[in-house]
Amino acid sequence: MAIKFNKKSKEFHLYNSSISYIIKILDNNQLGNLYYGKRIHHKESFSYLFEGGMRPLAAYVFEDDTNFSLQHTRQEYPSYGTTDFRYPAFEIKQRNGSRITNFEFEAYNIFKGKKKLEKLPATYVENEIEAQTLEIILYDKLIKTRLLLSYTIYEALPIITRNAKFLHEGKEEIILTKAMSCSLDLPDYDYEMVHLAGAWSRERHVKTKKLEQGIQSIYSLRGTSSAEHNPFIALKRPYTTEFQGEVYGFSLVYSGNFLGEVLVDTHSTSRIMLGIHPNMFEWILHENESFQTPEVVMAYSDEGLNGMSKAYHKLYRTRLARGYWRDKSRPILINNWEATTFDFNEEIILNIAKTAKDLGIELFVLDDGWFGERNNDKAGLGDWYVNTKKLPDGIVGLSKKIEEMGMKFGLWFEPEMVNKDSNLYRNHPDWIIHTPNRSASHCRNQYILDFSRKEVVDYIYEAMSKVLREASISYVKWDMNRYMTECYSVAKTAENQGKVMHEYVLNVYSLYEKLTSEFPYILFESCSSGGARFDPGILYYAPQGWTSDNTDAVERMKIQYGTSFVYPISSMGAHVSEVPNQQVIRTTPLETRANVAYFGAFGYELDLNNLSKKERALVKKQVEFMKEKRELIQKGTFYRLVSPLENNINSWMVVSEDKCEALVGYYKILNTANDGFKRIKLHGLDSNKKYNINDNKQNVFFGDELMYAGIPVKQEDFCSKDGDFTSVLYYLKEA
Ligand code: DGJ
C-alpha cells in the first residue's frame, strides 16, 4: 500500500495490491480524477488519461484556449457555475448572493493511519499500518475558505474512504447549501445501478437498472436513512455476476437524510455522488467555523458482487462496529413483542422467560410497554419509569428474577419520541419538532423530540441512564418508529433552521456515544420500525440491528439477501417467530424459520409455551446448534449463492477464515411437481481440503468437487419432505 505524489506531473497515486486511485492537480489548480479501479503499475505520470478538447457550446477556463473545460473533465469535488453545467458536489452562497467558488490546490499531507471524524461515526484502524491517509487542502482566497478532502486507503481491503471538510476564515459568513461526502467521475456509463429499496416490512430488496443519460437517484428526506432507500449505490458492469466482473460500491456512513445520484452526461461519463441531502440542509459558517461531511466508503471488486460485499463485511464487522460486543459471541435471545405486544404482566413475562431458559436461550428482551401509561401506542412514550401496575417489582425486580433464572435481561427504549399523553409532553410541550403556528402531524400517535436541542438530549440521557444503572441490564433495543415532519426547532434562529435535521442525527450519535461509553458491556441493538435506520452510521454504535419487522421466513430471505450486499450477517437481527406469521399470515416449517434466522444475530420472538412438546424439543436442538456454530456464522466469510428474488431457490453460505468449516443454507420456496435434479455449487472452500458433510463419514468430498461439481440436493435431505418452504442445511467440516 502506498500514497505517492509526483511533483512534476502533480499526481497522487493511492494504491494497494488490488486497487489504484489517481488524482491530478489540473491546470486551473483544481482537482481532477484520472483513474479509479483495479490496481495498475505505479508510474511517474498518467497524464495521458486527462482528456480535453474543443466541443461546440462548451465554455473554457483560459483565454485563448479551447481545450480546457470542466464540463469534460473528470473531477474530484466539482462546483457548478464556471464551465461545468453538471450538478456539483457542493454549493456555497455568499453574502453578495454569488454561488461561484474557486477552490485551488494549496497543500497536501500524507500520513499513516486514519483520523477520527468530528462528532460522526466512521471506519477506523486499530494499528496505523492498516491504512494510509491523504489530505488535500484547497483554498478559495476570495471567500477565505479552505476545503479539506480526505482519502484513506486500507492495506488489506479494496477500500478507499472519503470525506470533505469546509473551514471558513472569512469575516463575512458563508452558507453551505450542499456538501456531499464524495463525488466521482467515471469515463463511461456502461453500468447498471444496484441499490436497496423497499418499505416497512420489505426493506432492502435488491434493485438493478441500466444507467441512461440523465440522473438516476436514491434518497431519503424522512429524517432517518429510511426503509425506502438505503444509503448505498453500486455500479456494476452489465456482465457482472455475484462472482465475476467489475463493481464499484459507495456506502454512506450516515443515518439521516441523504442523496445518492448517478448523473450520466451527454458525453457518456458518469458522475456518482453521495452525501447529506441538500434539501432541508443549510449550514451557515461564521468566521473560524467548520463543517464536516460524513464518510463515504468506496469498495471496488473485479470478483463480482460477492467480492464487493466481502470487503464491506470485513471492514464493517471489524473496523466500523466497535466495543466489547464486536467480536464476542452474540447471545441467543427471546423477545416478547410478537408474543404479547403491550398486553403483559410480570407473570406472563416470567413464564415466557422460564420456558426459554429451559430450552437454552440466554437473554430475555422486554420490548415496548413496560413504562409510564404505555398500554397501547397512544400514551406513555417519553416516561421512562416503570409501570408498576404491570411490573410491581419494577425493572430492578424483574431483571433480578430473570438473572436468577440464569438468563441475561434486555430492555426496549424509544428515546427520541414522545406521546402527547405523557408526563414528558405535559411538562415540555415545546420539546417536539414542530413549526410554529402550523399543525404537527403524528405517526403512530407519536411526535419526535427535538434532538437538535442539547437540553432535550441531556434529559433523555438522565432518564435512560438511571434505568440502566439501577437494574441488571445487558442489552438495549433502541427503537425509532416514525419519520420527521414539519421540521423546525423553536430553540433556533431563522438562519439556523437548515441545521436541524443534521444536528438531530449528530445528537442521536452523541447520545449513543455517551451511553455506550458509560455502559460498555451492554449490547445495543438498533431498530426503526424494523429496518428503517439500518445503516453504517448506526452500526458504529450498535453492532446489530433489527433487520425488519417482517419475521416470515420467505420474506426474510429476500430482506437478508439484499441487506447482505453491504452489511455483515452478524449485524442482522433474525428471529424465529410463530405461524401463521403475523405479517404475511404464512405458515412455514419451524426448521426453515430457524434455517433462515441462523444467518444473522439469532433469536426467538414468540411465546414458546404455545408450541407443542415436539416443537419445543426442536427449539432446544436449534439453540444447541446455534451455540456450536455461532462463531463460524458471526466471523466467517459470507457468500450469496442463489438469489430468492429471481428464483424459487435461495442459497447462501458462510466459510470460516481458515476454511476448515462452512455452513450452507439451501431453501426451496414453493414445491414443484416432477422437478429436475438440482445441484448447489459452493464457494470459498479450499480446493485441496477434504470436507465431510453433516458429520457423515461416508460423505467426504474435496473442496474443488464441492465448488465446481457441486452438491446434489436430494429431496430426502429437506427438513419437510413435501409441501412448500422447505430447506436443508449442510455443515461442512474438514475431514
Ligand atoms: C417496532 C419494532 O420494530 C418492533 O420490533 C417493536 O419493538 C415495536 N416497534 C414496539 O413498539
TrEMBL record:
It catalyses: Hydrolysis of terminal, non-reducing alpha-D-galactose residues in alpha-D-galactosides, including galactose oligosaccharides, galactomannans and galactolipids. Substrate binds at W200, D367, D368, R444, K477, W478, D479, M480, N481, C527, D549. Keywords: Glycosidase, Hydrolase. The keyword Isomerase does not apply. One of its GO terms (biological process) is carbohydrate catabolic process. CDD domains: GH36 (cd14791). Residues 651-732 form the Glycosyl hydrolase family 36 C-terminal domain. Its EC number is 3.2.1.22. Belongs to the glycosyl hydrolase. This is Alpha-galactosidase. It comes from Clostridium chromiireducens.
